[in-house]
Fold this protein.
Amino acid sequence: MPRTAEIARATTETEIALSLDLDGSGQADVLTGVGFLDHMLTLLARHGLLDLHVRCQGDLHVDQHHTVEDVGICLGQAIDRAVGDKKGIVRYGTFTVPMDETLVMVSLDLSGRPFLACNLDTRNRKIGEFDAELTPEFFRAVAVNARMTLHVHQFYGENGHHIIEAAFKAFGRALDAATRVDERSPGVPSTKGVL
Ligand SMILES: [Mn+2]
């Protein structure tokens, strides 16, 4: 069974086409209109070894909020669809990424229970044209729509680009770990029998 999903979502604020292959090779083809978000999604694909195609036409004349959040919604929906009934997957993933002075850990559970805890220091920061405070908005949209428990924990860090990039890389690696197939455990990885 291919673990892929295609999402098309159109509102008055954004129009998005996204496709995801969890068993890809890290190929990204991403154009959202927000250069830094393209950079982050490209490294998410590379470090998560997933193939990701995104096209977004968003209302960037307002600001970047709708674009960033709605791409997160579509990515979350795609993850939820691609993992299907979650039979045979590892379920949990935790990865810590250092980036120079910055250290960020992502720990996630494909639990079926949406939750985000995020302490990234993004307030009042701009990374080029990117509003850094949209980063937790992105991760919240992913967590809610993928129905995952997601913790994004910054131990320390100074440079805003490093902080956000380390978070996306850690998320990609943790997601890859959680979605791996464990051949010793063919059923749903829960004593409840369903996730
Ligand atoms: Mn970078």
Remarks:
- Residues 39, 161, 165 surround manganese (II) ion (CB under 6 Å).
- The first strand starts at residue 4 and ends at 10.
- The mean pLDDT is 97.
- The helical segments are 35-48, 65-83, 134-146, 160-179.
